[in-house]
Design goal:
Blueprint: H1 2-20, H2 25-54, H3 63-92
Helix pairs in contact: 1-2, 2-3
Length: about 110
């Protein structure tokens, strides 16, 4: 149940970002949720490699523990993807000038 709530808030987070920059809202909401799953997958691979190298002794049968260990990796991936997407859209979006007094003036003024 907690995972569904987390997925909802991640989707809403990206939905609002796409809405702010006039992009496809549902597409980026789904991509945001997928970025969470990619982050948890990469986190699982990192934990597996660390367990193989350093023999940490993880209990791979305990799905609750694995879910809690992979959660920070997923959230970090969501935050990183959101940050990069927002920064890219801020650089490429042209904000219109909404002042009537600037009509007819040259750009240098």
């Amino acid at each position: 149940m907690l995972g569904i709530v987390l997925i909802y808030f991640i989707g809403r987070y990206f939905y609002r970002l796409a809405e702010e920059y006039n992009k496809n809202k549902w597409l980026f909401a789904i991509i945001g949720v997928l970025s969470y799953y990619v982050g948890t997958f990469v986190g699982g691979i990192i934990l597996g490699v660390l367990d193989g190298i350093f023999n940490i002794g993880m209990d791979w049968d305990n799905s609750l523990m694995l879910g809690l260990l992979a959660l920070p990796f997923g959230v970090a991936m969501v935050y990183l993807f959101h940050f990069l997407l927002k920064r890219h859209w801020e650089k490429t979006t042209i904000k219109p000038v909404d002042e009537i007094e600037t009509i007819g003036k040259s750009i240098e003024e």
